[in-house]
Prior knowledge:
The structure holds two protein chains of two kinds.
Chain A: H1 3-29, E1 44-49, H2 54-64, H3 68-73, E2 76-81, H4 86-95, E3 102-104, H5 109-117, H6 124-131, H7 139-149, E4 160-167, H8 168-173, H9 182-194, E5 198-201, H10 208-222, H11 226-232, H12 240-254, H13 267-275, E6 279-285, H14 289-292, E7 305-308, E8 322-326, E9 331-333, H15 340-361, H16 378-389, E10 392-394, H17 403-418, H18 423-434
Parallel strand pairs in A: 1-2, 1-3, 5-6, 8-10
Antiparallel strand pairs in A: 3-9, 4-6, 4-7, 4-8
Helix pairs in contact in A: 2-15, 10-12, 10-17, 12-18, 17-18
Chain B: H1 2-6, H2 8-36, E1 39-42, E2 46-49, H3 53-60, H4 62-97, H5 101-113, H6 116-126, H7 135-142, H8 154-181, H9 186-194, H10 199-210, H11 212-227, H12 231-236, H13 248-257, H14 262-288
Helix pairs in contact in B: 2-14, 3-14, 4-5, 4-8, 4-11, 5-8, 8-11, 11-14, 13-14
Amino acid sequence: xxxxxxxxxxxxxxxxxxxxxxxxxxxxCSGSGDGSGGSAPTEFSYxxxxxxxxxxxxxxxxxxxxxxxxxxxxxxxxxxxxQAGIDQQLQLLGGQGALPVVFAAGNSPQVIKDLxxxxxVLDIGSTFDDLGIADDIIPAAKSTIEALYGSQIVxxxxxxxxxxxxxxxxxxxxxxxxxxxxxxxxxxxxxxxAAGVTPLSTAGKDGWPVTRLLxxxxxxxxxxxxxxxxxxxxxxxxxPEYVAAAQAVADLGxxxxxxxxxxxxxxxxxxxxxxxxxxxxxxxxxxxxxVFNDPAQNKIGAENIGFIPFPEVEGGGGxxxxxxxxxxxxxGMSASAYDEKVGDWLTCIGDNFGTDSLKNQGVITGFTVNxxxxxxxxxxxxxxxxxxASPESVLWFEALFNAKATSTSQTNGSQLATGALSPADFxxxxxxxxxx
Amino acid sequence: MNRVLGDWRAIxxxxxxxxxxxxxxxxVPILWSLGYTVFEGNPITGFTFVGFDNLxxxxxxxxVLEALVFTLKYAFVLTVLQVVFGYLLSLMYVFWLRRASxxxxxxxxxxxxxxxxxVALLFQKLFEIVPQNGLVNSLLNxxxxxxxxxxxxxxxxxxxxxxxxxxRSMGFYAVLLYAGLVDIPEETLESARLDGASGWxxxxxxxxxxxLPVLLSSIIFSINGTLKVFDSILALTNGGPxxxxxxxxxxxxxxxxxxxxxxxxSSIALLLTILCLIVTIxxxxxxxxxxxxx
Lengths: 436, 294
């Protein structure tokens, strides 16, 4: 070897070593190929909310039943994420182009809207058209999705109405009628407190069960377009009539209607309080039917549970037949992970999810129930009837907020209930983050 | 050896990989983050140039002020407590337990090796009120004090965080300071004793001045660690109730990854960096003079 060649080799070796080390590092830093994110998925990955077991159970049930063929071609794989962190998780995964095949769409509708504007979310509407299963989503669910998201970019794995569930036995034992107005509700709460029962079981720690009450009170006092006006900038949450609604919720807390230590009660504890007969009322969506229809969890019995819409407020512009409705935390799908096998899964889900969920979980979804379900639990039937009878629905408090205002509202909800934050301050904080 | 170190190729090979790793995992992200401060958006929605709007917003955002005040309060209180408790423990090891201190040192050090999240869960359970009382509330009940909802008030939540972090870290500072104390020559202590110094006098005039360098190191360690607190608070209170226990780090994380405002999140990161820099410079400057003559 000549001296010149030796010199060249001496220079090349360290440079090559450096490049090699750098490449290794960059490879280590790049996102992992977990069956999605551009390449053909190797599994039907689903990022679920840890708190929501109904969708997981239905998908698992389908994978061993109606969708067994699809399961063989593309096995279902479920990972969970607590609801409080789902927005962060989606932002991170979206930023890396590593969204799973199917994922819970996040607390704030804005998150999936952002992902959609970045071209990362599958257009469910046109995909369903292509697959020839457009009729698998009921029209009411389609219109709710479009009202929330602008277009059909999610799967309505739930179609919920919300309201107040009450313990019929406790009400009867204490001579209380199901409240029709806000004043009735306050009077019922006083009677329940006198009987040593927590009036309204509320997961203050999670925040949103408190702000749900606030949203409903606003709709009942100011009419069904009250939150749209805030979103459009025509009204502000700091306006006296909106602050008055926050005051009404804070008054419930101050009167002890949520029971002691509302700020530390999480969702599971709140549910347990009600199904163990320790609380008279419970504001929640109809997704809770899966718990109520399960005798192992529901100690008071489904026959002892009644449902009323959020009561009217005297002199208010809203009406109690305007039920609060939502599609729960729907499922979004990754556009880049979509292929024929995912399409097969989607067809199977569209055809069977509605029936399977209603039959096995007692959860009403936005999917068409293609096979009628016999022996529907009476409570589920009641809710289906109530939803059908509602001429108009309203959304929830944060439905039209951005991610920041949603987070501020939900993290401070507990303080509104405990009285640590005044109603005016609470509304000012949320309004500041709305940015309009 | 001189010939090897005089050869630039040898230097490249020896230093190159470390420098490359350092550049890739430290310098590039820092500069990248600095660049983000003049943009707004996130990788999903794209970025738009906003100039110094983000930095200006830092001065008008009430939540930044709240987080800054909490961070400083937390750093000050925790630094004082963990260094004081660590120092007291180390004095106990050296002067009281002496050779028998091995077991106690191990026990007190044990929480340091536990995962933060596990410790946070432990404290959540200890201070729990629903669905059932934790140990602390049960103890309060036995002496006739009603249960306290520790995590629903900003003040009590703050002190639970402080308690947890003191318990978790005092063992580390005790060992660090113990290493400094055992370095004090026995003859010096003996001669001080012969001169009549004992107890508090011995500690005040001999032990503290001679262990000042390691004490100062502990304070620098502590203050920099506590200003950057993240995991313990995220796991214990998640910044709540509301945003009352949200330090700058958590607010930065929420802003970037929950609200999707990478630019403003990076501006908060810049504020935190400047804060750490100021505090470190302040401590280093004050340590330049001979503290033993203080």
